[in-house]
Amino acid sequence: MADQVWIGIILIAALALFVYDRWRYDFVAMGALFAAYIVGLIPRNEVFSGFGNAAVITVAAVLVISHALWRSGVVDSMASSVKQVGDRVWLQMIVLTGLTTFVSAFISNTGAMAIMIPVALQLSRNGAGHASLMLMPMAFGSLLGGTITMIGTPPNIIISDIRAAHDADPFGIFDFTPVGLSLAVAGLVMMWVTAHWLVPRSKSRDTSNSPYDVSAYLTELYLPENAALIGHTLFEFESKIKENFAVVALKRGKQLITAPPRYQRLKAEDVLIIEADAETLQQILDITKFELNAEEQLDTRFLVSDEIKVIEGIVGHDSRLIGRSAADLRIRHRFGVNVLAVAREGQPLKPSLSDVRFKPGDVLLLQGDAEVLDDVFKRFGCFPLAQRSLRLGSKRKLLVPLGIFAGAVLASAFGLLSVPVAFSMAAGLMVLANVIPIRELYEHIEWPIIVLLAATIPLGGAMERSGAADTLATGVLWISMSSPDVVALVILLVATMLLSNIINNAAAAVLMAPIGISLASSLEASMDPFLMAVAVGAALPFLTPIGHQSNILVMGPGGYRFKDYWRLGLPLSIAMVIVATVMITLTWPMRG
């Protein structure tokens, strides 16, 4: 009994920290793992056993393959055809959500969304559509797509491995398809019919290319002969001003220097284009004796050149920017990149921008060297929304990664190779075929997810050994007393779905699977329908933006607020519980 109390305390504390979101979930999971070891719940030789687990290896391999398919332009080729659908908003939504759902069955949900969000924004800008009407259904479609195959989402991979650990064959790559495809079709039809009424509309992106009116903060300053700081560097000029502002360009005669270096010396008759609010501007004028130069209207043409670009990007759920500001990170000093604007829930935040502490879903407007910006996005875990050229590539270049991927799917589907081996080999072949450079092999593996899985898998084992899973299963049986067995299945499905809305879905699958297996044992039923219920519940967090990276990615571009997800997410969740219950019991009978 003491072991059950200890594992309960550790898991409740971990769940509270997951929700509090002060520390990253992989750090919390490792802390819980060490705590369980210290109190004797996990043997010494099993503490790090999760890192060698087949599910962890499979997730890493699938992430590598997803990036290879993304990089080769396979998905872009499909996305490019979407632009031909015309200006009808409803038709745009059908095509975008359908394509996103299909793609998410085979590559990571986040990768699919990173490709499709810019396409949705461009369609909205060029036509009469509302981006907000399309983005939330697209995010939910990516979650639905993940349920279709075993490799579509980490919970499915985990559940397959857990089945194998309980003296049964692992689920095959298409064993999830009857239930997942039914969910995807039902969910898409429901969203197509109800999105017009249930998805909130934001007009922030319907009339312009972004929610920012950058020109409102751009000011042109002329440096007369008698001005202070003539001959000084930009660094010295910036050091004189207490408030935060950005020098976005310098005009010297006919020359325009965008994002000028901090060692650039000021000369008489230079013209500086700065971004600052009214109070900061007045301070600059008082200290330097510069003059306002209002001869022409300022706009974003001063922000770009052949080398310098202005790009929007979304702060991801695991971004290193979260909780920190541009001033904390010294982004301009370290990388030569200006933070020109920040939008939260579709609305611009006013200067002083360098002190804004970033949150998941914020949309940033950054200016700097194009290659440096790409590195900044990768380094800090952001997703660019730049309208880049699609990586269409030649037919041969598309056929190689598709052939490798298809080979892995077929080899695992026909039992020639196990899924971990087939997809690990496919990841290696992607490198050998130069689909993905070897230097990028590990860059796009989401290591926090890998560490989270490796840490929570032993915790799931500790739940079973301590008897905590049996105790919780007994509680569910007591609640569903005198009811058909399917009621216990529904309770498990709903509980997993609610849990996945507040913690990572992979962790939800690991923690709920032992309870599902104990339920099946108590009912003397097959464990398969209960494992499927956990997989579905963990994969479909529709109620909150923090439930999944896809939900966070559309929050800023769509102008959504936290509570907006309930409007479509709650009825969709109810519908998915009904469809899943019917399809699971038909496909995976309780008995036999």
TrEMBL record:
It comes from the Bacteria. It is found in: Membrane. Keywords: Membrane, Repeat, Transmembrane, Transmembrane helix, Transport. Gene3D superfamilies: Regulator of K+ conductance, C-terminal domain. Residues 205-290, 298-383 form the RCK C-terminal domain. GO terms for molecular function: monoatomic cation transmembrane transporter activity. The chain crosses the membrane at residues 5-21, 27-43, 50-70, 90-121, 133-159, 179-199, 398-415, 421-438, 445-463, 475-495, 502-523, 529-547, 568-588. The keyword Hydrolase does not apply. It is a multi-pass membrane protein. One of its GO terms (biological process) is potassium ion transport. GO terms for cellular component: plasma membrane. PANTHER family: BASIC AMINO ACID ANTIPORTER YFCC-RELATED. This is Potassium transporter TrkA.
